[in-house]
Design brief:
With 186 residues, the chain is an alpha+beta fold. The protein has four helices and three strands; from the N terminus they run βαβαααβ.
Length: 186
């Protein structure tokens, strides 16, 4: 067979298959975009992580829902809508800002809420300036194991009770539950 008789490749690309603009499953009407299904980087155990989850339940703070959600928080199932988003916190400043955001996030939704959030772990937190915990029940919070989460963040000052979350933290606004976790607990 000569070179002339061999089939040559066609000069145009197929319009089917492969990556292209507009490809993929379409989002249902009224649904927010989810966490992208990308491979996460490996966790480094010395860095805590700011973890955010989206709840499928409309209001976790309601008096009927919160006690049930709190009991079920460690289980798997229909409370959590999608994958979680985790961001490693590498500096004392990042950790302090994340702690303030987690503990005071409720103020973004309830403008004039005084004191601490009754639906958070704030009642067991010992890093508020001028306020000490008087919680009677046993803490449901695992003690921090990383230096950044135990001690390092305090270099930038204790958390004020009246502090408001920074607007830069607003990128996590769409999530209903936020938590700080040591990376090796994920």
């Amino acid at each position: 067979m000569s070179n002339r008789d061999r089939q040559q490749p066609l000069p145009f690309r197929s319009a089917r298959g492969g990556r292209r603009r507009g490809a993929g499953r379409k989002r249902a009407p009224g649904r927010r975009p989810g966490v992208p299904h990308r491979r996460r980087p490996e966790h480094v155990s010395r860095y805590p992580a700011h973890v955010t989850l989206r709840a499928s339940i409309r209001c976790l703070r309601s008096p009927r829902v919160f006690p049930e959600a709190r009991r079920a928080i460690e289980r798997r199932g229909s409370i959590w809508d999608e994958r979680y988003h985790a961001r490693p916190l590498r500096t004392p400043r990042e950790v302090r800002n994340a702690i303030a955001y987690v503990l005071h996030n409720f103020r973004k939704h309830q403008r004039y809420a005084p004191g601490i959030d009754p639906c958070s772990s704030a009642q067991w937190f010992d890093g508020f300036r001028g306020w000490t915990s008087s919680a009677r029940e046993e803490s449901s919070v695992v003690p921090a194991r990383t230096w950044l989460l135990r001690v390092g963040w305090k270099r930038h000052g204790l958390i004020e009770l009246a502090e408001r979350p920074a607007s830069a933290a607003g990128r996590f606004r769409r999530f209903s539950h936020v938590a700080l976790r040591d990376a090796d607990n994920l």
